[in-house]
Design goal:
It is built from eight helices and twelve strands. It has about 300 residues and is of the alpha/beta class. The strands form two sheets. It has a six-stranded parallel beta sheet, sandwiched between helices. Strands 8-9-10-7-11-12 form a six-stranded mixed beta sheet, with helices on one face. Helix 4 links the parallel strand 4 and strand 5. Helix 4 runs parallel beside helix 5 and helix 6 packs across helix 8. The two termini are about 35 Å apart.
């Protein structure tokens, strides 16, 4: 409403990515971060100290995101929680009159994503996803080159992530850590006893909460491929893979090849979480194969 007005943003989920975003926002001259929320009290306290250093005053700390959404004067929220909460939390935030920045992937399923779009249409709120490649100048140049015909006709694109990961091991169910609201962490996911391997960081390897490496990295690199070729949803998908290398608790595959079939092109995805030699000499990236040449682009 005014160039001098400050934007008030709350951040939900501040262990890792949300903590980074909260500090970055708090360091801006046009933003206040008055409240943080996390189900882990120790995580919340550490993030609060970091944000306090960035903006000069300590934000309030909440353990229940609904109390954050109920705060008057809050313009927007950042959602940086596990994937299984994204769709519901975005809907509740929009319905409470807040704009939303939600980390990728926006949802676990296509149905959830469609519900989020419907929520936006009904509430008129602004919702942005954390696909930062869309703002990268070299990505914009690469996509423009592909779309302007620099490669001729492109009939195939490939996206991948290949790196040497670590096993998560095998762990038994255990007692809850102190100051953790585990039932709220589960939220819409099926109820089950607490297991440390399904919690901080490792949650993404379990289908109840995330989409494995395909959901973690594939959403970014495949988006670049779809963007360059102006594609929507494929006609057919075939996939093969499994947990061939790590014999641990994870449910999602450590090795996977997927083919997304379109009328005039095919998209390929590959991930290997136990190797260091990726396609085109890159650990993570996207390649466009055209009749006049090949273009490879990554975050570097």
């Amino acid at each position: 409403r005014s160039p001098n007005e400050r934007i008030s943003i709350g951040v939900i989920g501040v262990r890792q990515r949300g903590r980074q975003l909260a500090s970055m926002l708090a360091s801006r001259s046009d933003v206040d971060v008055p409240v943080l929320c996390d189900i882990d009290g120790a995580v919340n306290a550490a993030a609060g100290r970091e944000v306090s250093e960035a903006q000069g005053w300590l934000p309030d700390l909440e353990s229940d995101f609904r109390r954050l959404l109920d705060r008057p004067g809050l313009d927007a929220v950042v959602i940086a929680v596990p994937d299984h909460w994204h769709a519901r939390m975005t809907r509740l935030a929009c319905e409470s009159g807040k704009d939303v920045y939600v980390e990728a992937p926006v949802s676990r399923t296509i149905a959830e994503a469609r519900e989020m779009i419907e929520t936006v249409n009904q509430t008129g709120r602004v919702v942005q996803s954390g696909l930062q490649q869309r703002s990268g100048s070299h990505y914009l140049e690469a996509i423009g080159f592909v779309r302007d015909g620099g490669l001729g006709r492109v009939r195939m694109a490939r996206a991948w992530t290949v790196h040497r990961g670590k096993p998560i091991g095998v762990q038994s169910d255990a007692a809850l850590p102190p100051r953790v609201d585990y039932q709220q962490w589960l939220g819409p996911a099926p109820s089950r006893p607490f297991n440390p391997n399904r919690f901080h960081q490792n949650w993404r390897w379990f289908w109840d909460y995330g989409g494995g490496a395909l959901g973690h990295w594939g959403v970014h690199m495949l988006d670049v491929a779809r963007w360059g070729l102006d594609l929507d949803l494929p006609e057919r998908i075939s996939a093969t893979g499994g947990s061939y290398h790590f014999h641990d608790d994870r449910e999602s595959p450590d090795t996977l090849c997927v083919q997304f079939q379109y009328p005039a092109a095919t998209l390929l995805w590959e991930h290997r979480l136990w190797s260091t030699r990726g396609p085109e000499g890159r650990s993570t990236g996207t390649a466009f194969y055209g009749e006049l040449g090949t273009l490879v682009v990554d975050r570097g």
